[in-house]
Amino acid sequence: MRSFCLAVVLAAAIAMSASVGLAQHASSAGPYKLLKTAKVGGEGGFDYIFADVEGRRLYIPRSGPMGQLTVFNLDTLEPAGTIADVKSGGAVVDPKSHHGFSTTKPLSMWDSETLKVIKTIEVDGRPDGIMFDAYNERVWILSHTPPYATVIDAKEGTVVGTVDLAGTAEQAVSDGKGTVYINISDKGGVAVVNAKNLTVTANYDMSSKGVHGSGMSGDAKNHVLFAYYRDPKPVVVILNADNGNTLATFPTGEGVDTVAFNPATMEAISAEAAGSMTFIKENSPTSFTVEQTLQTMPGAKTMALDTKTNHVLTMTANYGPAPANAPPGPAGRPARGPMVPGSFSILMVGK
Questions:
Q1: Is 236's pLDDT higher than 90?
Q2: Measured between alpha carbons, how far is 92 from 50 in angstroms, rounded to an integer?
Q3: Residue 334 has what pLDDT?
Q4: Long-range contacts of range 74-80, CB-CB < 8 Å, 24 or more positions apart?
Q5: Distance separating alpha carbons of residues 20 and 345, to the nearest angstrom
Q6: Is the pLDDT of residue 210 over 70?
Q7: Which of 84, 85, 93 is nearest to 57 (CA)?
């Protein structure tokens, strides 16, 4: 009877794959599940999602003709405001100054309490990824064209300097003590940067393990990094942050984009465009296991961690069929048609 019920559920999930609500039935065994789905709608593309844990707000930038920065309550996922005409890929907030930043060009600086733009900041390159480093209250703007990293003083909203990474920058993570690690996409490596003087102190070559780097997270206490690569096969390389030595490797779902490490649960978490989320348990600084692969929804490739509740937030939408002879999407993903109007949704994952 149990096998029969499982088969029925899986069949229904396949037959109704366009339904957001059924994503939770496709999860594998493990502690995590889809807790809530909020169909918030809205037009335009999307990329990064950011959780302001102290302010209890969730920021989702939308691009396209109707692009804006959309804001939601981090606990209820109810709408909490917008900043019109801020069409960007990512956003962060400094909890001390309450200054927010979006990767527009020029960069947009705004007040996280009033949701009013304060000013714009001229930067070179093509702003894409973004990270707030609480160590010295700076915002790191990551780019796929030189300069690959631009650093902003979050209090003043001024450019501190740039970093010559000699490669395209993807996700970055800070150890909170003055070192920033950046996944270099086109070179298959990790750049180690001194956050004080903005110099590269080391480069860890990961090209033998994978290329087209994407997500980067870290266990700062135990000096462990989790670097994710998309080709030739999707993989996470776990390495010693001090010397770059490989500790372990594991396969992941296809299309990893952003990732996080939760020090409260000792888990590395990745969101994957193929419609999955992988949880890797750190049993010790040298022992790791794949704890769970949770099925979410296709396109849910970025994530944010709420360290207060240990909830993981991701987002995606439903899409119509791809046009005939349409070229593949980014990173070799299958082509897809237009977004179904009103289908854009936020997914909350937890135990």
A1: yes
A2: 6
A3: 67
A4: 74/306, 74/313, 75/309, 77/36, 77/38, 77/40, 77/346, 77/348, 78/38, 79/40
A5: 8
A6: yes
A7: 93
CB 154 within 8 A of CB 161: no
Residue 107 CA: distances (Å) to CA of 165, 186, 198, 304: 20, 24, 20, 21
Count of helices and strands (H, E) across the chain: 1, 28
- Type of residue numbered 150: T
Least Cα distance to 344 among 89, 23, 33, 38 occurs for 38
**Residues 268, 272, 277, 278, Cα dihedral to 10°:** -50
What are 170's strand-pairing partners? none
**Nearest CA-CA partner of 346 in 65, 70, 8:** 70
Average pLDDT, integer, range 275-279 = 97
What is the helix (H) or strand (E) element at residue 170, kind and residue range? strand 169-174
Distance CA 351, CA 349 (A): 7
Residues 6 or more apart whose CB falls under 8 angstroms from that of 4 comprise none
Q: What is the rounded (10 degree) CA torsion for 289, 292, 296, 301?
A: -10
Q: pLDDT at residue 228 above 60?
A: yes
Report how far residue 182's alpha carbon sits from residue 285's, in angstroms, rounded to the nearest whole number. 20
Domain coordinates of the chain in residue numbers? 21-350
Q: Which amino acid makes up residue 299?
A: G
Rounded distance between C-alpha atoms, residue 331 and residue 329, angstroms: 7
- Return the HEC string of 176-193: CCCEEEEEECCCCEEEEE
Is domain 21-350 classified as CATH 3.40.570.10? no
Which pTM value belongs to this model?
0.89
Do 280 and 261 meet the contact criterion of CB atoms below 8 Å apart? no
Radius of gyration from C-alpha coordinates of the chain: 19
